[in-house]
Amino acid sequence: MRVTFLLLLTIFFIVVQKSLCDPLVLIEEGITEYFRTRTRPGYLENSIREALIRTSSKLGEDGMHCALCRIVTKIVIEYRRAGTNNEIIGDIGKDLCTLFADIGYVTCVGYIDLTIDTFVFIIDNKPDITPERFCAIRLQEYGCVDPNYVPWRIDLPPGRSPSLPRRPSGQTTSVLHLTDIHYDPLYQPESNADCEDVLCCEITSGIPKQAIHEAGFWGDYRPCDMPWQSFENLLSQVKNKHRIDSVYLTGDIISHQVWNTSKEYNQLYITQVLEKIQHTFGTTPVYPILGNHEAHPTDFYPPNSVEGDFSISWLLDYVAEEWSRWLPTSTLTTIRQGGFYTVLVKPGFRIIALNSNVCFTNNIWLVYDDVDPYNQLQWLSDTLLEAEKNQEAVHILSHIPPGDIECSQQWSHEFRRIIER
Ligand SMILES: *[C@@H]1O[C@H](CO)[C@@H](O)[C@H](O)[C@H]1NC(C)=O
């Protein structure tokens, strides 16, 4: 009797003490224990929930999200360095993902299966990686700080770029700008539009609980992508109602089913969409660029130095070939180098098509090497100087907007220096 009472009292004090503790301390203890014992301690879920509810961190402020990110990253790096294998890190990662993020179980499990080897490769091959660096890049939108960050610079030509005299020709041109088509081959009308994952309205999204949750025929404003019939209909409307002189196709043909991408299927759907556009508009020139969703895994654009399984050549070589239905052979070299190119559309007017997906903060390869990936910005500066000498006006196409909170600050900064020269 007495012993039981004492025991209960002790448990009571431990519980009270734990919950009075800073949730961050508990979370660090809990995750460390998770990695050591491979069993999630009971209090971890609540501590995480509490930390996320209590968080006052706003966008652009190094607060709770950054602190949590650094804790998790530090433990993962430590345990990997001590020899923990990909499978164990992946399994704990999946579980923590479902606790921390609201992207749903299916997305967490599938996306981590696709990406765990990349994460581990980066930890293994980047001996000076720090939690500060990882979080400052990945959670830039929360203003996470890396005090040891070393900025890099693009060599700009001396002087300032003169403004081009305006010479109105009296002619107009009409450009069809297509972007973020996100064609979903698995879209299913009347499927569940109200699911837990990042993408719904698919055969696998479950059965809708009520009629109001059913996916529409042409698409749905809930987290759903575009069915083929809507894309077809869109193109035929444009074709029948407008005169189109050229098409800017600025990326993200692939759907948001990020947990189930593959090189083969991404290639298949890219070709399917490009063929449809070519078939619709005939000889009208099309200027395509890459989106973050064309990569596999989604968002991952590794630098040229990365070879083998992780290399991005499969995509760059593929689009070099696919885009050649519209682009001259002079574009092949830079497309194969990094997915960017320039074309003189007519005397005095040039297009520069970028692969700005390298700057997207979801592109984890920025942690590995963020110095002007593919030498693209240096090339941009050089190409603009040539255009300047030839008195050309230029349109720059880009999928991730430079200056966006999710585009690497350093990349945006150098882009801006180039543009503002
Ligand atoms: C994964 O993607 C492929 C290609 O789109 C598709 O055939 C397959 O049904 C998908 N699997 C699931 C579970 O959605």
- Indicate the percent of residues in helices: 40-55%
Shape: globular
Task: Write out the strand line-up for the largest beta sheet, numbering strands in chain order.
Answer: 1-2-3
Taking the sheet with the most strands, its summary is: 3 strands, parallel
Radius of gyration using CA atoms only: 25 Å
Task: Jot down its keywords.
ASMase/PPN1_MPP, 421 residues, three-stranded mixed beta sheet, 2 domains, globular, 45% helix, binds 2-acetamido-2-deoxy-beta-D-glucopyranose, glycosidase, three-stranded parallel beta sheet, 14 helices, glycoprotein, mainly alpha, Purple Acid Phosphatase, chain A, domain 2
List the helices and strands and how they pair.
Blueprint (H helix, E strand, L loop, with lengths): L1 H19 L2 H15 L6 H11 L9 H18 L4 H15 L4 H21 L5 H8 L36 E4 L49 H14 L4 E4 L13 H19 L4 E3 L24 H11 L8 H7 L2 E6 L2 E5 L11 H4 L7 H14 L3 E5 L11 H12 L1
Parallel strand pairs: 1-2, 2-3, 5-6
Antiparallel strand pairs: 4-5
Helix pairs in contact: 2-3, 2-4, 4-7, 5-6, 8-9, 9-10, 10-11
2-acetamido-2-deoxy-beta-D-glucopyranose binds next to loops.
